Amino acid sequence: MLSPLLTEPALLAGLSAIAVLLVITWVVDLLDLRRKRASQPGYSKRKAYARTMLMLWTTAALCVAAWLGSGRDLATLGLSAGTGWRGLAGWIAALLASAYVIYTIYLAATSREARANIRQQFDTAKGMDLLRPQTRKEHRDFQFLSVTAGVTEEIIFRGFLIGALALVLPLWLAAFVSVAAFLLAHIYQGAAGLGRIAPVTLVMTGIFLVSGTLWPAILLHCLVDAAAGGMIALVDHHEAADKAEPVPA
After folding, report:
1. 87, part of any domain
2. 43 within some domain
3. DSSP for residue 188
4. What is the pTM assigned to this prediction?
5. Cα gap 147→43, rounded to integer Å
């Protein structure tokens, strides 16, 4: 069953890079959680952002190099604009989902009740304290991280991983493994966090499978992550005023 991959050393190297990324992410996130919750010195969000960006760009570059080294091109990796009705459907789905994300930002900016709900989710989310920006520089770096994650994670988990696994698995199963690997990379956020991430992950995977291009999913992924940073800034900025007058039951 694995024989097609065994004859593709470049793809095996790419899969190994993804495995290494997952292991390093689990170990580092676990250590960071323990250090931060024990109020130990040495933890810096900006350093954590920079480290994550370095790991993601490095892994994505290795995956692209592995894909090209296997004799395939960028279009088959998903880095094309998409054509035909399938490409159009992917872009429409991404734009509709993006419109919903923008609407949630609008609600956070205009509704005290919406901010209260978002604030509660952030405050109770396991692992959120590792990523939640507070200072202006942290918010700026978080936006860089959002773009990084949007581009690199789509290349790694959607384009490369699905493409490589589809050589030995049915496409639906390759997609399932991709979703599982993506969620494992975010396991530090706990069950509640994974519950919020899973629907978005399924949508982005579906968009890629339908359209055959990564770009609509990349657009949506960048926007979702950037919007999370924007909503953190909004709820924190209005926290004192919101709490001064309780939200009506």
Report:
1. yes
2. yes
3. G
4. 0.91
5. 23
- Interval 128-152: pLDDT, tens: 777 889 899 999 999 999 999 999 9
Q: Which helix (H) or strand (E) holds 202?
A: helix 190-211
**Total number of domains constituting the chain:** 1
Phi-psi domain of 40 (left: phi exceeds 0; alpha: psi -120 through 50; beta: other)? beta
Containing structural domain, residue 120: 3-244
- In a domain, residue 249? The reply is no
210-240 per-position pLDDT tens digit: 999 999 999 999 999 999 999 999 999 888 8
Q: Is 96 exposed, middle or buried, given 0-12, 13-18 or 19+ CB atoms closer than 10 A?
A: exposed
- As a whole number, the mean pLDDT across the chain is 89
**In this structure, is residue 45 part of a structural domain?**
yes
Q: In whole angstroms, how large is the CA radius of gyration of the chain?
A: 19
Q: Residue 149: which residues within 8 A CB-CB, separation 6 or more?
A: 52, 56, 221, 222, 225
What distance in Å separates the CA atoms of residue 167 and residue 113, rounded to the nearest whole number?
49
Between CA 239 and CA 237 the distance in angstroms is: 6
